[in-house]
Amino acid sequence: MTVTNNAYPAPDDTLDQDENETLSAQVRQAYQARQPLRIVGGDTRAFYGRKVEGETLSLARHRGIVHYDPVELVVTVRAGTPVEELEAALARQNQLLPFEPPRFGSDSTIGGVVATGLSGPRRPWAGAVRDFVLGTRVITQEGKLLRFGGEVMKNVAGYDLSRLMTGAQGTLGVLSEISFKVLPVPTATHSLVLELPLDEAMQKLAELGRQPLPITAAAWHAGLLHLRLEGGNSSVEATRERLGGEPLESTFWQELRDQRLAFFQCQPGQSLWRLSLPPHTPPLDLDVAQDNIFHDWAGSQRWVKTSLDADTLRRACRLAGGHATCFTPQHETAEFEPFTPLDPIVAKYHRNLKTELDEHGIFNPGRLYAAF
Question: What is the dihedral of CA 232, 90, 166, 118, to 10 degrees?
C-alpha cells in the first residue's frame, strides 16, 4: 500500500492481499467452459436482486488499501476490503465516503457497495456512489485486468466503464479495485427531531430546500421529522437555533442507513419496497397505512411495508414519475422481477451492452433481470 501522508499508520499485512492472478485465472476458466459465476464479497447484499446460480467467485480475500492520499482526497482500495475497515482508515485522517454507504453487516465490502450502487441518508445533498467513483480496475470476460478512469476527475472517451459498473451488480465484469474521491468530516454536526404531520413536514422541507441551509439528511415517519445539520460551526448553530426541535442521537442515521430501525422489521405476508420518486411528490394513492411508510431523502426515497402486488405499486410510482424496487419479496419465484421492468428500447441497449462485455453470460447471470 502506498500512502503519501506519514500520519497514516502502517498497514497490517494480513489485511493486504492481492488475489488478481487467482481471480483472473478463475474467470478465464469460466469463460472457456461457459461456466456461470456468482460473484460475492461479504455476501451481505444477497437479498438485493434475483438469485444467481453458478460457481462462486469470492473476492473476500482480495482486500487492502492500495493507495491513499489524504491531501488529494483520493483513495484506491481492493474490492474485497470491508467497508468498516476503509471507513476506519479514512476516519483516522478525519475524512469519509460522502455517499454514506449502507453496510447490512460487518462483512460488507466496498466492492458490494459499488456493485449495488446504494447510498445512505446524505445522498440527495452530497451525491450518489457513482459521483465519487474516479476509476476502477476490472477483470473482463477473458480474464484480463484492465484499468478504467484513474484518480482524478476527467472526461473519458467511449464507455465510462467505471460508472457502468456502479449498480450493475457484477453483471458486466469483476470489480478488482475502485478509486474514490473522499471528503473531510464536517466541522460540526447536529441532529434534531420535530413533531409534524406529513403534509406540514413535506411543506417545511420544500421551504428549507430553497434556502442555503446545512441540511444533509431528512426523514419523516410516524409524525416525526428528523433532520441532520452538518457544516461550519456558525452555520450549524444558527440553523439549530432557528429550527428548534428536540436533540436526536446521531446513531439514528446509521441505523436508518443500515436498515436497523424497528420500522424495517416486516410482518408475515409483507414485503419491503423502495420507492424512488421526484422531489416533493405528494403521497401516492396506495392502500397502505402511514405507519408502514418511511419517508427518507426528504421524501424522494420511500420505504413501504406492504402485501400489495408489484403491479399496483409500480403503477402508482410510474404515474408519479418514479419506480419501485422490491427488497424482500413475499414469495420469490423465477418469474418475479424485483426491479422495475425495462422499456423495450432500454432493454435492447442493456442486452447489447451485456453481450458486448459478457458474451457467454458468465457474470452473475439473471441478477438484475431474468433475460440477461
Answer: -60
